[in-house]
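Reply to dn_fold:

You asked what the input looked like. This is it:
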Amino acid sequence: MYRFLTDRECIINIKEPINVKTCIGKDFFCGKNPDEKEKLVFLLSSKDYLKTMKLSSFNQYPVVYSGNDLLREGIVPDFTLSDVDGSFYEKLESFWYNRKQIKRELHMIIKNDLGYIEQVIDEVFDFIQTFYAREDALYLKLVLDESLNNAYYHGNKQNPERHIRFLMRYYGYKIEFTIEDEGKGFNVSDSLDKDIDVFSPRGRGIMLINSLMDEVAFRYRGNIINMVKYI
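and this is what came back:
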């Protein structure tokens, strides 16, 4: 049984009308630990609420976002209104099944500072070595170093006021990293089409990441990179 929560009154038609009358405030997500037995679904129309929810302990729950500024802001919801159709409950069940496969999750906002970035890399590297041979773990550390430094230098332009969102999910059979910066992004196709000098210390980041990871995808305006390694 799902319980729907929203930041405003709304009605969504799925298989039967769902009437949501109780609105939640931003403080709903602050200083609380959710009941893991309860299947919550958030219906949010504000990007500020979405960001607050995703950076709280409630980020494990699905969210339907009804705003129209996804591409501009680079926000990553689980569903949009176009997903709310006759098969929406099946989609929710699939979401919960995938959530149960996650054995370890690390989600944090990193200050755009090389010292903080290095601390995150070392922490993740120590964790990876608990299930992965050190030699293989070093390759993943190299990927993290390259992608996080790309976010620092190229995405956030070394601006100390900006931040990097980092998400790691370990499923037992694969590990997944998502890194998002606050920069303008870039045209991924143009970058891949460029001739790369393999002897140059610059310009090899995407090529290196593609060679070491099994799946690599850039999302939205190019400021989000998702990387997967099967174990």
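The chain has a mean pLDDT of 83.
Hope that clears it up.
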